[in-house]
Design a protein that fits this description.
The protein has 827 residues and is an alpha+beta fold. The chain contains 18 helices and 41 strands.
Length: 827
């Protein structure tokens, strides 16, 4: 007993370190997945499951012109003979081969429900039927002529091909996807005609570069159409085998009879689910992430795809389309990873040229083996025909020899000895029919023999010349192109698409930006305000907090840059579209959510402009200090802000204007004084400097208005004065002479108890058409500038706005002629 145990231990139990066993076992599993399941062969572009499906259909006689057979029959045949895995795994693979939205050139002709681009599943395999497509037969062409190697199936009961002969470059024209262990492949489909042209060129020019090949193979060609961008990205993917190709849906903007617009989508990026896309758009509209869409419907039918997105009348079609590209799968990236098995065992990332070269090498081997096979068959037949010719030349003697022989075997031996024949020739003579002794039949044998000799010579000539083999490959490829090539489905745009910026998704509309003293900001469409007559009460412009008032009101566009200057002399930068949108009566959002101001800091100056350009920002403080700094110095403002001007302890920054460096400066005070001096009197300074005196103020006075005047531009220009009690006037600008910087100025208005202190002083011209005046309690009025009287400098003005008791004017904004015209066009 002890001896038996010793023998058992020594003969069958092998000690093994656990880590090594796990490592080896996992590697075996990984290689099995890589080779036997997940990755395609570079030669025929098929994974084992696809190859077995097509080979099974070939053996079942399911060619393109045969009767359809139940998919259950095919699945059973594949499972029982070649692929011992799950039935649904095999059926899913077969279904994909039949889907014209998955395969550029479908290899299976399906009858029944094989799924849809909406993500619908195929019907069960007991309901569907299938057969091969005509182009699929090209994959199996000449397989019976010993063109490829065969191997045992899983149980050793039959043989299956290691690879298909593949007369078409299937890996490129249909692409392939697969996830193995530690690696994945994602090869896009291409146009057959282009790939054949590329192969022919490479056969003639083996040293061709990727650029040369791209003259023929322009880029991927997806079955769902769409568009791809950036020839440089495509080139990189072809050169390295890896890359990212941007895909977009094909969408057009159509105008209706009533001036309304709609976006019509007719093609989608590859592998995008149409139903999921429609649902995504609907969700974005529901969540108000995309605004301006009034209706959405899918009008797709057998004629083709058609998703209709109807827009509201005031919507901007291109902006909405940009939003759809940005936020939905209407724009996707195809991540190229051209990984395939080389030699059936080694996974490699291949360039476009590599794939073409491997396919040509495969075709060389297939064509060579086929011609050798045909040569052997021709030689065998010629050998038999030679024997038949001998028999016919000595017909009487042959008949006599056969008649004298006792058995068939004796007759064969006698013929071999007497006429020096081979056993095969003797057998062929014995198998001859009497009808072949007729004269015409004898001529046929003679003719066939000559043809075989000619064929043998031709085959031997081809086999002796690699160039002739390549010529045969070219001719066969061109025949394939002639029969199966079609026009390109996917459009290619040479330039790339820039990364979407937020402004690409937002209409560049005119808006009013309001900022309250308590620090609440919002933007409102300009057409919210209607023109009213002078002296009207106005409309409620904002719902403010108790004791809060509107402090700043500017007219701008949503794409403009906006600079916020604080009382502490700091500056912050934002974009107008980043300011929260609100209604006419909404409070707005606290500005601390937009910029990082401190608790003791308030925004006192707001300036918007479309771009950073040449010129200066001219700053004026409440104490009359002035300073000018180049605009370009404010191009890159940190989120935490930058110092715009150094201030004295009791001084605040309140006004910032754009200037050219050759302008004049106009400063007015609350007590009705004003000074006009040349801008060149103030030298340019850096951001961190303090500035110089612009006007010499009395102890109880402060600056309330600042403006820039183009030199010598007095004609048709006025000084607009508005006081806190709602009075105002226009005064001719020429009534104000140029003085030296730093003086006390001259009178610009008669300030009394009736008028109250001046609130604002602005320089306007004939293009100024309307004023928007806001009060501390939130009232707004819009009135024509022409309705404001032109009076002298030392006057009070006329009533512009009726105010409730205790209310005062807070701010004034001027609208110009071009702004009003644009507003009317929008209406």
């Amino acid at each position: 007993m002890a001896k038996k145990e010793e023998k058992f231990n020594l003969g069958f139990v092998k000690p093994r370190i656990l880590e090594e066993e796990m490592k080896d076992s996992y590697l075996d599993y990984a290689m099995s997945v890589i080779i036997s399941r997940a990755l395609p062969d570079v030669r025929d572009g098929l994974k084992p499951v696809h190859r077995r499906i097509l080979y099974s259909m070939y053996n079942l006689g399911l060619t393109h012109n045969a009767k359809f057979r139940k998919c259950a029959t095919i699945i059973g045949d594949v499972l029982g003979k070649y692929h011992p895995h799950g039935d649904m795994a095999v059926y899913d693979a077969l279904v994909r081969l039949a889907q014209d939205f998955s395969m550029r050139y479908p290899l299976v002709d399906g009858q029944g429900n094989f799924g849809s681009i909406d993500g619908d599943s195929a019907a069960a395999y007991r309901y569907t039927e299938a057969r091969m497509t005509k182009i699929a037969e090209q994959l199996l062409s000449d397989i019976e002529k010993d063109t490829v190697d065969f191997m045992d199936n899983f149980d050793g009961t039959r043989k299956e091909p290691k690879v298909l002969p593949s007369a078409i470059p299937n890996l490129l024209i249909n692409g392939q996807m697969g996830i193995a262990v530690g690696m994945a492949t994602n090869i896009p489909p291409h146009n057959l005609g282009e790939v054949v042209d590329g192969l022919v060129y490479l056969i003639d020019h083996p040293d061709a570069t990727i650029e040369d090949l791209m003259e023929f193979i322009k880029g991927p060609d997806f079955p769902t159409g769409g568009a791809i961008y950036d020839i440089n990205e495509i080139k990189e993917a072809y050169a390295t085998g890896k890359g990212k190709i941007l895909m977009r849906a094909q969408a057009t903007i159509e105008e209706g009879k009533r001036g309304e617009y709609k976006i019509v989508v007719t093609e989608l990026p590859y592998q995008v689910n149409k139903a999921a896309l429609v649902a995504k758009i609907a969700d974005l509209v529901k969540e108000k992430r995309i605004q301006g869409i009034s209706n959405l419907r899918d009008e797709s039918d057998r004629e083709g795809m058609r998703i209709v997105i109807e827009l509201k009348k005031d919507a901007h079609p291109q902006k909405i389309l940009n939003s759809l590209y940005k936020l939905t799968p209407m724009q996707e990236s195809f991540n190229v990873n051209m990984l395939a098995l080389v030699g059936g065992i080694q996974p490699k990332v291949l360039s476009l040229k590599n794939i073409l070269e491997y396919f040509i090498e495969h075709r060389k081997e297939v064509v060579t083996r086929r011609i050798k096979f045909d040569l052997e068959k021709a030689k065998e037949r010629a050998h038999i025909l030679e024997g038949l010719k001998i028999a016919l030349a000595h017909l009487s003697q042959v008949i006599s020899t056969i008649k004298k022989s006792k058995t068939r075997e004796t007759a064969k031996e006698n013929l071999i000895k007497k006429f020096k024949l081979t056993e095969i020739q003797a057998q062929a003579i014995l198998d001859m029919k009497l009808a072949q002794l007729a004269a015409l039949e004898r001529e046929k044998i003679e003719k066939e023999y000559k043809e075989k000799k000619k064929l043998i010579k031709e085959y031997e000539s081809i086999l002796a010349s690699p160039k002739k083999i390549l010529k045969v490959i070219k001719e066969e490829l061109l025949k394939v192109k002639e029969e199966f090539a079609d026009s390109r489905k996917t459009k290619i745009y040479k330039t790339g698409i820039k990364e979407f910026k937020v402004e690409d998704l937002i209409p560049n509309e005119e808006v009013v930006v309001t900022l309250t003293k308590a620090g609440y900001i919002k933007r409102i469409p300009i057409n919210t305000y209607k023109v009213q007559h002078r002296g009207g009460k106005g409309i409620i412009g904002a719902t403010t907090k108790e004791e809060d008032i509107i402090d700043r009101l500017i007219v701008s566009k949503t794409h403009d840059f906006i600079l916020f200057f604080t009382n502490k002399g700091r500056v912050f930068q934002s974009r107008v579209f980043e300011i929260p949108s609100g209604s006419r009566i909404s409070k707005g959002q606290a500005i601390v959510n937009l910029i990082q101001i401190r608790g003791d800091e308030k925004v006192t100056g707001v300036l918007s402009f479309s771009e950073f350009k040449e010129g200066y920002l001219f700053m004026v403080t409440t104490k009359g200090t002035v300073k000018k700094t180049k605009i370009i110095d404010f191009k890159n403002v940190r989120k935490s802000g930058l110092i715009a001007i150094k201030l004295a302890p009791d001084e605040e920054l309140r006004w910032i204007k754009q200037s050219s460096g050759k302008d004049e400066v106009f400063i007015a005070t609350a007590k009705g004084l004003a000074i006009r001096f040349k801008e060149k009197d103030v030298r340019p300074m850096g951001r961190a400097s303090h500035g110089v005196k612009g006007i010499n103020l009395k102890k109880d006075d402060k600056v309330v208005g600042v403006d820039i005047i183009k030199e010598g531009k007095d004609k048709g220009r006025y000084v607009l004065v508005v006081s806190e009690n709602g009075l105002g006037k226009r005064t001719l600008l020429r009534n104000y002479k140029v003085q030296n910087r730093g003086g006390v100025g001259i009178k610009t208005a008669k300030v009394t108890e009736k008028t109250g202190d001046l609130v604002t002083v602005k320089i306007i011209d004939d293009k100024a058409t309307d004023l928007i005046i806001s009060s501390e309690k939130g009232q707004l009025i819009r009135l024509p500038v022409k309705s404001i009287s032109i009076l002298g400098r030392d006057t009070q003005g006329v009533r512009l706005m009726k105010l409730e008791k205790g209310d005062k004017v807070a701010s004034v904004s001027v609208l110009r002629k071009e702004e009003i015209e644009e507003e009317k066009e929008k209406k």
